[in-house]
Amino acid sequence: MEQARTTISKIFNGEPRSYTRFNLTQNMEGDNSHVEMKLSADLDEEVGGNGVGETHQPNGVHGPYALRKTGRSPMNICFLVSATLLIFIIGYLIGYLVHRKKEEVALSCKLADLPLSPPSVVQRETGAAPLMDWADVKSLLAEQLSADKLEDLGSASHRAGSLGDEALANKVLSRFKAYSMHPWSDEHFVRVQEPDARKPNQVTFKGVTEKQTGFLSYSATGNVTGAILYAYYGRMDDFEMLKDFNMLLSGRVVLVKAGKISFADKVANAARWNVSAVLIYGDTDINELYGHVHLGSGDPYSPGFPSFNHTRFAAVQSSGLPSILAQTISWKLAERIIGSLEGHLPPNKWRDVIRLGDNDVVTVEVNNVLVEKKIHNILGVIKGLVDPDRYIILGAQRDAWGTGFAKSTVGTSVLVELARSISTMVKHGGFRPRRSIVFASWSAGDYGNVGSTEWLEVGIQSNWSITSTILAIWCYPIRTCGYVLWFMCALLFSLSLQPMQMSDAAFPFLAFSGIPSISFRFTGTSDYPYLDTPLDTKEQLSKATSYQVTKLALDAAQVAGQMTLRLVHDYLLSFDLQGYDQLITVYTADITRKVLMLQKTNFMFLFLFLKPVQFQLFVALDKVCRMTPCNRPHGTCPQVERNLLSPYVSPRDSPFRHIFIGSGQHTFKAIVDQLEAFRLQNSVVDVDTFKTELALATWTLQGCANSLAGDVWSLDNEI
């Protein structure tokens, strides 16, 4: 051992070192003490041949502070430190490897105890590639959809909240249970208007009073008398044409024809011209016409909030409730009024009448009462295997004023058949959806999409993550959708696009919540005239479709099914934004042109400089549209609709906050209308208000452009 120690000592210092000695001495001139540390080599020089050390001299050459040659150079010290550190690192690594080896051995022992064949579980999709090709998915859907299994879920009467509606809801619920979709009933207590059974609505013309069976929910109530005036379909263009004819509109009772736009739009347009009441009639032989005139959706007495039992929010009404009377009338009464009209000749395109009306007086009496109804939305879910918290909603209206075969029965049957087919594909066909599918059967659709809006308002409060919405609602009008989801229609089918209207059941999802949505319908060469009437029966629809109802219902199921499955199948959702490119370009050009015209005649617009932020958004949209799907930021495109909701207006006052397809002063349509009012020198319009609305709408676009730019660190003054 001594030899090894000596060898190691020579390696580092060149001299042997055996031990050290500590010598504590006291300074004779004071109380301070010091410690002297000497190595054995130092002692050898001090000790004589007999081993006795020389006498200590405080100030001598052998004093405690004398520097002695010991063989310690700076280089030797550096070597000593480096070697010590190296030995420490090597020891640490050896200990770590030994400890890890023990853990691996313990883990191997535990794994050895597990069974070789684990219990079978559903394989979850985690990669970018789908587990089933899209072509195979389409083929599998086509195999499942069957005319023999398409169930007729019609009933004699299933008005929202009635016993017939509840019975049909229970039938849908039982089907969803049979398909193992874990269904549930979403219950709401909503307030709607109904006719007063003791005091019916009536219209008096030339001394003859006729009671009307049909009615318009949410109309103002009371009694008004005024001169009758024909206004064609009640569109804004129709009223402006009457104004060009110098026709007095204020205080008049206008007669309009059903169609082209919703009842609510007709009444709202009439109210803007200070009309006192609106009468609406249908086509020949239609004596009962039903609908609503709320320019909005959901329960108008709890706007922005869901209606639950025993829950009452602040007393507030929707801004979309009309302030004037509205009533539907029979074709017989409309024919008698039209035949008696005198006065100015109508425009050439208005072929239904000979005269527009002069001094013929009509009295309108509306006695609707407000009632509370319990409604049920029935929902079932097929859970996704990768992103189960992202939902695709597939819904259809269940209620109707009467039989409602085209309005709701076919759509409900298609919804249930798709639920059966897709659930079978998942359980037995090997299809594994990435995202979840929610099948929804809505109630109170005829009162203004009340059921779907109430459920949506619950979701907004709960911050649900809804990727997109498809509402497969069968009836005669054209199919409509938001621009972002249109790619799905164009990709799968040859269809035409028209802007979504407020009467579409998907409208609140898009305009209220900013969820990409689509509503589609099949059309014929002529309109189906029996919607919202007791004549909407299976027989009438069969005649209108040349007895092809079953075939067209399966076609509808293919359209809705393929769109739904594509949204839950694809790893990346390739949304198309080109529709907004065109829309922004049109609005930008229109606003710029009108402002330049006003700057020539109105000094208040002289210093209004339009910074073309709209074009900046166009550039951002174009940039994203040109990206390949794999290069798109995850979730960027579906967020476009939500980013186009104005953050500067209250959801209570303006629930449809979408600046392009919403309603209110914050929309670009309203901004263009204000410029037109300036041109017509309408004193009601305020210039400062216009500038504020333009600035807020422009800044909303700015925020959307920023979100499309992607990484926040990439933003610069060009966006």
UniProtKB/TrEMBL annotation:
<comment type="function">
    <text>Cellular uptake of iron occurs via receptor-mediated endocytosis of ligand-occupied transferrin receptor into specialized endosomes. Endosomal acidification leads to iron release. The apotransferrin-receptor complex is then recycled to the cell surface with a return to neutral pH and the concomitant loss of affinity of apotransferrin for its receptor. Transferrin receptor is necessary for development of erythrocytes and the nervous system. Acts as a lipid sensor that regulates mitochondrial fusion by regulating activation of the JNK pathway.</text>
</comment>
<keyword id="KW-0472">Membrane</keyword>
<keyword id="KW-0254">Endocytosis</keyword>
<dbReference type="Pfam" id="PF02225">
    <property type="entry name" value="PA"/>
</dbReference>
<comment type="subunit">
    <text>Homodimer; disulfide-linked.</text>
</comment>
<dbReference type="GO" id="GO:0009897">
    <property type="term" value="C:external side of plasma membrane"/>
</dbReference>
<feature type="transmembrane region" description="Helical">
    <location>
        <begin position="77"/>
        <end position="98"/>
    </location>
</feature>
<keyword id="KW-0325">Glycoprotein</keyword>
<keyword id="KW-1133">Transmembrane helix</keyword>
<comment type="similarity">
    <text>Belongs to the peptidase M28 family. M28B subfamily.</text>
</comment>
<dbReference type="InterPro" id="IPR046450">
    <property type="entry name" value="PA_dom_sf"/>
</dbReference>
<keyword id="KW-0675">Receptor</keyword>
<keyword id="KW-0449">Lipoprotein</keyword>
<dbReference type="GO" id="GO:0006879">
    <property type="term" value="P:intracellular iron ion homeostasis"/>
</dbReference>
<dbReference type="GO" id="GO:0042470">
    <property type="term" value="C:melanosome"/>
</dbReference>
<dbReference type="GO" id="GO:0004998">
    <property type="term" value="F:transferrin receptor activity"/>
</dbReference>
<dbReference type="InterPro" id="IPR039373">
    <property type="entry name" value="Peptidase_M28B"/>
</dbReference>
<dbReference type="InterPro" id="IPR036757">
    <property type="entry name" value="TFR-like_dimer_dom_sf"/>
</dbReference>
<protein>
    <recommendedName>
        <fullName>Transferrin receptor protein 1</fullName>
    </recommendedName>
</protein>
<keyword id="KW-1003">Cell membrane</keyword>
<keyword id="KW-0812">Transmembrane</keyword>
<keyword id="KW-0564">Palmitate</keyword>
<dbReference type="GO" id="GO:0033572">
    <property type="term" value="P:transferrin transport"/>
</dbReference>
<dbReference type="GO" id="GO:0031623">
    <property type="term" value="P:receptor internalization"/>
</dbReference>
<dbReference type="InterPro" id="IPR003137">
    <property type="entry name" value="PA_domain"/>
</dbReference>
<feature type="domain" description="PA">
    <location>
        <begin position="227"/>
        <end position="286"/>
    </location>
</feature>
